[in-house]
Amino acid sequence: MQLQRRDPLHPIIPVKGDDHSNSRSSPPRRRMSSSPSRHSYSSGPATNSTSRLLAAGAMGASLLHHLVVAVALLLTTAAPSAKATIPHISAIISQSGLDFAKDLLVSGAVETLTPLSVPDIERSVNIPLVGTVRMVASGIVLHSLAVTNSTVAVGDTGVVVAASLASANISMEWSYSYSAWVVTISDSGNASIQV
């Protein structure tokens, strides 16, 4: 039997004209034209099991090659497109979990907001027959904030936290002055407001 080696990566396969092949073995393959880079090997009589092993190895390599190509095609065609998937994070939160988060959020907001200093407010208004009145509210401070009732709900755009029955304690200084012809009238004082 004459064997031909196709290349270093493929097994040696039998060449047509094998006298010792069994009729049950696979049909002989055609001999490839020889080129300077290919080598031919001769061997003595081979058993039927050797011929079968060589033929099975050649078929196995061919099947493996076709299988790898088919899997690669399936992976590239079955992969979802980037436009079809939108990155997101999803979670399930119970109503009691929302209420707990709301209570933490409201108490944290109260601690962060108090005490809060508000910038001074100054206005000037021109009143006919009276003249120009200048009003100033300065030193405005939010001292305390109490939230009696608050609710949380899931809206269309996200989670909505609403505070009701809230009260605040504010202190400030106020003053006003206006001049009519030659007379200037002014007054000032302190205020403590509970809202």
TrEMBL record:
Span of domain Lipid-binding serum glycoprotein N-terminal: 97-189
Q: List the SUPFAM superfamilies.
A: Bactericidal permeability-increasing protein, BPI
Ranges for the region named Disordered are: 1-48
Question: Do you know which InterPro entries this protein is assigned to?
Answer: Bactericidal_perm-incr_a/b_dom, BPI/LBP_pln, Lipid-bd_serum_glycop_N
Care to name a GO molecular-function term for this sequence? lipid binding
Against Gene3D superfamilies, the record matches this protein to:
Bactericidal permeability-increasing protein, domain 1
Question: One Pfam annotation, family name?
Answer: LBP_BPI_CETP
Q: Where is the composition biased (Low complexity)?
A: 33-45
Q: Which PANTHER family match?
A: OS06G0309200 PROTEIN, OS09G0482720 PROTEIN
Q: What is this protein called?
A: Lipid-binding serum glycoprotein N-terminal domain-containing protein
The species is: Eleusine coracana subsp. coracana
